[in-house]
Amino acid sequence: MKKVVVLFILFISLYPICFILIGSFIGNFEVKTYLSALNDGSKSHDYQLFIFPKYLTLSAYVALLLDTPSFFVAFWNSFKSTILITVGQLLVNLPAAWWFYRVTFKGKNIIFNLYILLMVLPFVVLMVPQYMILKQMQLLDTLGAVILPGIFYTLAVFIITPYFRDIPKSVIEYAVLEGANEWQLFTKIGLPFATKGIMIAIVLNFIDYWGSFESTMTYIKNKSLWNLPMYIMMLKVDNMTLIFVSVVVAMVVPIAILYSFREFLIGGLTIADK
Question: Strands, DSSP E only, in the chain?
């Protein structure tokens, strides 16, 4: 019974990916035939199309490469903004995590919990105040409208702080006796101890913002500044193969990152759970 449940969950999880991947190698006419079959039970034989496609073609990939420059503009916007957000988050959240670890005062846990609360607030709650702030800063309709709010996302603090707390007090005390200042404690002790937590935060934040479209949809009207998810959302359904190919190419980056750091991430998460 357990195997059946696992296989069912696996099928439900992988089917959308397989559907899109197979669809990217099929002609647009065949895709339309299959989608028409979904709305017309009398054409039940067409349901076999995506399992056993009649013809495989790379035409959609060629069209994306040669005839769709807007895709690469959106790809570059996503890559650029995601990198800047990820780096900015580290510059803001690493000192914040170290501060929560080193500074002791009454009400510290309350402030920490309020800080982490920002991580779980839905975008719709933050949308209006963020819009007003960005408007005052004249950042609307610029990439800064996406990058600035992303920099202050607090997930990295939540992930990295436990790694700082695992530093033995004797190590800090010995370094202080040897004359180390706070900056030296942070860079020579704190960062090496938290390396795995930092990598986890980088990967999770990168993947999160790579697939994010809410900020772009809300704050940016200029199509030349749209990121990849927003670009894909606005593609016309007349050319489904282009949509499938765009999604497949968009998935390559996060999948490659997860695969490259899989052992490192699993090891880091295991240590964090101890």
Answer: none
Do 148 and 47 sit in the same domain of this protein? no
Q: How many domains are contained in the chain?
A: 2
Contact 55, 26 (CB under 8 A): yes
Shared-domain flag, residues 144 and 249: yes
Position 256, amino acid: A
- pLDDT, tens only, 22-73: 777 877 666 666 666 666 654 455 555 555 666 777 888 888 888 888 999 9
100 and 127 both lie in a single domain:
yes
Which domain, by its residues, includes 46?
2-57
Residue 154 CB: number of other CB atoms within 10 A? 21
